[in-house]
Specification:
Blueprint (H helix, E strand, L loop, with lengths): L4 H32 L17 E3 L4 E2 L6 H16 L3 E2 L8 E17 L5 E16 L5 E15 L6 H26 L2
Parallel strand pairs: 1-3, 1-4, 2-4
Antiparallel strand pairs: 4-5, 5-6
Helix pairs in contact: 2-3
Length: 189
């Protein structure tokens, strides 16, 4: 049996609203599920309990031989925490709600690219740290990572070697290390 053009058109016109309603319902279910699963934009959330309003960040222990690595990483973490604005940073451990302690376990610079003269001009820098955030009064851990690893590439300027620019390399990676750590603490990533 042959269908006429008007029959086919009538079927399409009456089935479009049904398909639209089904699509709208499906989209609503997906959005509701995503909202209920705790998804949020990076940088907007906090996994800290509401009772933590101030945090103390003592200078990290440096178990490496890199000069001032502890001071530079600690300063960068303090700055990153202040920038995020989720908690205020206090220099007084006794007046803070939580204490963030860190131990820099290793700093490894591995050459990954070389010039024509066989001199390394790009390094992969890997910083490993033991990090613990504790509630001050109960000593209960709020965040703990015994092996927080940050990896970054660093390009050595032409005509220089890594040892001569080591301080510049640490200055460059410290804020990136800090932002990564603060995101892990505040957002649970």
């Amino acid at each position: 049996m042959m269908r006429s053009f008007t029959d086919t058109r009538e079927r399409l016109v009456t089935s479009r609203p049904k398909r639209f309603c089904r699509g709208l319902a499906l989209a609503s279910v997906i959005l509701a599920a995503a909202a209920g699963c705790g998804y949020h934009l990076r940088g907007t959330g906090s996994s800290l309990p509401p009772s933590v309003k101030t945090m103390s960040i003592p200078v990290f222990r440096n178990l490496t031989t890199r000069y001032e690595l502890d001071i530079k990483l600690t300063r960068a973490v303090i700055n990153a925490m202040i920038e995020r604005g989720k908690v205020s940073v206090s220099p007084d451990t006794e007046k803070s709600d939580a204490v963030l302690e860190g131990e820099i376990v290793s700093f490894v610079a591995t050459p990954v690219a070389f010039t024509g003269g066989a001199q390394a001009d790009r390094y992969t820098i890997t910083v490993t740290a033991k990090i613990t955030l504790r509630e001050r009064t109960s000593d209960q851990p709020l965040f703990s990572n015994p092996s927080f690893v940050y990896v970054e590439q660093y390009a050595v300027p032409p005509g220089r070697d890594f040892e001569s620019v080591q301080t510049e390399a640490i200055d460059e990676i410290a804020p990136k290390f800090a932002r990564s750590l603060v995101a892990a603490i505040l957002e649970g990533f």
